Amino acid sequence: MQFKKISTNPKSRLYQRKTGRLVWGVVLFFFGLFGLVTEVQDSYRYDYSGMIIGIAFMFGGLAMVYSATKSNLNLERYHAYNQLIFKRGIFSIDSLARSMDKTYPETIQDLDQLVRKGYLQDMSVNRDSKMIEGLFVSKYKAQVQSKMIRCPGCGASNEVIQHETIPCEYCGRKLKYTDS
């Protein structure tokens, strides 16, 4: 008989929703509720242990539902940060805060939590430069092409990244990276 080792990536578990915990929490809650109702109907007994066990199951189920719901909400927020950092290449903490519609301290707290939990591998938050730093950031910046473009409206120079259209910092006119 040969056994095959099942390899699991612990990082992939970070991105999974907690539906199992949510379902078991609901099951425990209703199991406790059913036990409590059956104990309350038997009013001739003076033994409250069944009621206490029913209430304990209800609280345990509610705690599991709360924990799973909180984890799922955090997961959605982490996915949003993932999209901004890895897909759109936003490394400025101020830009992340604006994109997530959060304050600077909330964004710092979220990013610290992401680094601590392993969502942002090999990255750190530099509070002095207000940037995310790390191996991925330096590789990404090396691949990105940008150049200075003079605005035809006001004449100001603006840095434009390839494949992006940005507004002029001064007059708001749309500027696009061209290969010429």
UniProtKB/TrEMBL annotation:
The chain crosses the membrane at residues 21-38, 50-69. The keyword Membrane applies. It comes from the Bacteria. Keywords: Membrane, Transmembrane, Transmembrane helix. This is Zinc ribbon domain-containing protein. It comes from Erysipelothrix amsterdamensis. The lineage of its organism: Bacteria, Bacillati, Bacillota, Erysipelotrichia, Erysipelotrichales.
